Amino acid sequence: MKKHHGRIFAVCCLLAAASLALFARHDATPAAAPAKPVDDQSVTITAQQAQQVRVADVTERDFSPQVDAVGYVDFDQDHLAQVNSPYAGRVREVFVRAGDSVTRGQVLFSLDSPDLAQAEATLVSAAAARTQTTAALERARAMAKVEANAPRDLEQAVSDQQTAEGNYQAARRALHIFNKSDAEIDHIAASRIADGELRIESPIAGVATARTVAPGDLVQPGNTPAPFTVAVADRLWLVANVAESDAPQVQVGQALTASLPALPGQPIAAHVDYVGSSSDPATHRVMLRSVLHSPPPALRPQMLANFSITTAAPTRHDAAPVDAVVREGAGEMVMFTTTDGLHFTRHPVQVGPLQDGYYPVLAGLPPHQRIATEGALFLSNALALQSQ
Prior knowledge:
Blueprint: H1 2-28, E1 42-44, H2 47-50, E2 55-57, E3 59-63, E4 66-75, E5 80-83, E6 89-94, E7 101-102, E8 107-112, H3 114-145, H4 151-177, H5 182-191, E9 197-201, E10 206-211, E11 218-219, E12 228-231, E13 236-243, E14 255-260, E15 263-271, E16 274-279, E17 285-292, E18 304-310, E19 315-321, E20 326-327, E21 333-338, E22 343-348, E23 350-351, E24 358-363, E25 370-372, H6 376-387
Antiparallel strand pairs: 1-22, 2-25, 3-19, 4-13, 4-18, 5-12, 6-8, 6-11, 7-10, 8-9, 10-12, 13-17, 14-15, 14-18, 16-17, 19-24, 20-21, 21-22, 21-25, 23-24
C-alpha cells in the first residue's frame, strides 16, 4: 500500500515539474522588438543603384531677373512704304520685280488714269486759250496806240487774257498733284498730247519686298494689299508680346535676347526701344519692340521668336542643374543631398525661373552640400516606395 502511494506521489511530482517547465519556457519567450520609425526624408541605395545617380558639388552662378515673351520679326514699319496709286486706272507697265533694290523716286509701275487724262486735256485747252488771249491782247494794245479801237475793247482783252492765264496756272497745279514735273507739264502743253500715263514712284530707297500687280490689272486707291511694298533692307524690328502681369517690369533700354527656332544656337542681343502704352484687349498682352540696325543675313520678317528681357541687375545664388530638381506630385520642388553617395536626404526647396539649364536655389538647401544631379528622380521614386 505504501509502495502504491509512493508511485502516485512520484507521478504527481513529475507532472508538476513538467507544468513548471512549460510555464517557464512560455515566460522565457522574448517579446517582439518594437518597429523602428522609418525616416521619410532619407533614402539609402545600394552600390549598384548608385551607378544610376551622379553627385556633384553645389556651385554659384549669377542669375538675372528676366521676363519671357513670345513674338516675331517684322519689317521696320518706320522705314517701310505701302506704294499704292492715288487714282484709279489700269496698269500699263511694271518696271520692278519683287526683291529688286530701288532708289527714291524710281518708277515702280505705270497705269492709264482717266483722271490724269482729263487733267492733261484741261491743260492743253487752257494752254491754247492762254496763247489765243495773249495774242488778242497784243493786237488790242497795238490798236489802242493808234486809237483804232475803243478803250473797252482793250479792257476786255486784258480780262480775257488774265482769265486764260489763271486757268492755265490752275491746270498746271492740277498736274503737279499727279506728280508731274514742270518739264513734263511744259512738254504736254507744247505737244498738245494727253496720254494719261500715271507713273507711280517709290517714296523711299530700299528693297521691293512684295509686288501684287501685273500689266492689265485694275488698281483702285487703297487697294489691299498694296501693289508694291518697299522696305529698308538693313533695319528690322523684333516684336515681343509681354503678359500683362510682367509688363510693369519692362522698360525702355533694358537688355533683350531673342532666340529663333529658325536660327538655333544664334541668339540675338538687342535693347528694348519701345513699350506699348496699352494692352491688347484680345490677348491681354503688351507689345514691345527692338530695332535691329544690322540684322543677321539669315533673319527674315515674320520669323517666330522667343524673348528674354533682363529687368534688373544679376544676383548670385546656388545653382542647381535642371536634372537635380524634382517636381513631386503635390507640385513641391525637392533636391537630394548626400555625403557618401549612398545615403540621400530630401530637401524641399524654393527655386527661381530656369536660366541656361540651371535653377537659382532661393531657399531650402543647406550650404556647402553635395547634391544628386542625374538620377534625382530615381531617388524621389525610391523614397516614395520606402514610405509605403
